[in-house]
């Protein structure tokens, strides 16, 4: 009888992956909750990849996200590690502070009252 040891898998929470910190998720989910209450957003998805963490926002469950909030730690000392991208991939805002970067999306909540 031959015994084979199982192949080792890379650790899931290792340093090979970028993720949002709990405080960052609190800021993002706070905005998400307000936008859901306003009827603007309906679904979200989180991806943690090697170089980037992405929080995608959907108006409906669809193929393409309405907005993507990205965290790229390699850009921390340059343009800022946080960015908000539109549906077409255009960078709407980039910076070092997550709250100031997300203000570009909060403006969508402000509507003229008639």
Automatic annotation (TrEMBL):
Protein name per its UniProtKB record: DUF2794 domain-containing protein
Native source species: Roseovarius gahaiensis
Domain of life: Bacteria
InterPro entries: DUF2794
Family annotation (Pfam families): DUF2794
């Amino acid at each position: 009888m031959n015994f084979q040891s199982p192949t080792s898998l890379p650790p899931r929470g290792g340093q090979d992956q970028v993720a949002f910190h709990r405080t960052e998720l609190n800021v993002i989910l706070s905005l998400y909750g307000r936008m859901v209450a306003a009827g603007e957003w309906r679904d979200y998805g989180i991806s943690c990849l090697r170089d980037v963490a992405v929080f995608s926002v959907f108006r409906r469950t669809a193929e393409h996200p309405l907005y993507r909030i990205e965290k790229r730690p390699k850009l921390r000392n340059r343009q800022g590690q946080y960015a908000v991208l539109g549906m077409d991939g255009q960078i709407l805002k980039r910076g070092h502070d997550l709250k100031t970067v997300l203000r570009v999306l909060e403006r969508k909540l402000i509507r003229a009252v008639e």
